[in-house]
Write a structure and sequence with these properties.
Strand content: 25-35%
Structural class: alpha+beta
Number of helices: 9
Radius of gyration: 18 Å
Helix content: 25-40%
Order of helices and strands: HEHHEHEEEEEEEHHEEEEHHH
């Protein structure tokens, strides 16, 4: 457990979450899209990050056979506000790791990654984890088209005295290499709407004390730079210019955006949009 936590901490220091390439592909006609390689030294989104994390952990003494890949449904809704019917048909667009059949690791979920290896427990009792309050939520009656026999559990975090479910995964089902490749392809090529590919741009970075991100919805101004220190200390700054957005990516996330985004984000008329 201590070793896993150290590996997660070091990994989060070294790598940034970004959906830039997914967004880039989503802006293209279906016939012109290209599926990004899962194996890369510059991972961007969940499937790539988990591949890289497993490889990194194995270099530090872990065994590959101890890692299970679990498909996960992105929920990001407060309890009582989750549309279960829509979720049943939602395209799988995330995955998490279960290590030694005990510890959950998520290094590919934007600013909401887990800061360490979380002990999975078949209990709904709340617990503290790196200064935040979580609980698991069992959904025994939930059925998803991709895993009709799945035993689904949700991970929830306490935000302003309300439980926010981040994602949901089937406890009893794991992914093989072929299935992971198919999920990666579906994420890019599916004609179904996929939020992380089609609706917004997100770049995020975690430390042990802060969650930082810059996010913006497609075709809108402004973008928002967000920094969260703990559960209730949340700072949000509006970015009203292309230069401010670009500088934020350069200085905070060490990313150099190109003019492609000026056009594809519907900011091709900066004078009319204050960009």
């Amino acid at each position: 457990m201590t070793t896993l936590n150290f590996i997660v901490t070091e990994y989060l220091k070294d790598y940034t979450y970004s959906n830039l390439e997914l967004y880039r592909q989503g802006c293209k006609d279906l016939s012109k899209r290209k599926v990004p390689d899962l194996h890369t030294n510059a991972p961007c989104y969940c499937y790539q990050h988990n591949e890289k994390f497993i490889a990194t952990a194995c270099l530090k003494g872990c065994k590959k056979e101890d890692f299970e890949r679990k498909k996960a449904l992105v929920v990001k809704s407060y309890e009582g506000e989750i549309n279960e019917n829509d979720l049943r048909d939602e395209l799988v667009s995330h995955d998490v790791l279960l290590v030694e059949k005990r510890y959950l690791i998520d290094v590919g979920y934007g600013a909401n990654c887990l800061r360490g290896a979380m002990l999975f427990q078949e209990s709904e009792q709340a617990f503290e984890f790196f200064g935040e309050t979580y609980r698991f939520r069992h959904h025994p009656d939930f059925v998803h088209y991709s895993e009709p026999t799945g035993d689904w559990w949700g991970l929830q975090i306490l935000v302003n005295d309300r439980w926010l479910e981040t994602w949901r995964f089937p406890r009893n089902c794991s992914l093989n290499d072929e299935e992971i490749c198919q999920l990666n392809e579906d994420l890019v090529m599916s004609p179904k709407p996929v939020g992380i590919r089609d609706n917004f741009l997100l770049v995020a970075k975690l430390s042990m004390t802060t969650r930082s991100s810059v996010v913006g919805m497609k075709g809108t101004v402004p973008f928002f730079k967000e920094i969260q220190n703990g559960e209730n200390n949340h700072i949000q700054e509006e970015l009203h210019s292309w230069n401010a957005f670009k500088q934020c990516l350069q200085t905070r996330f060490n990313i150099e955006p190109d003019e492609f985004f000026l056009h594809q984000l519907s900011f091709s008329e900066p004078n009319q949009r204050n960009w």
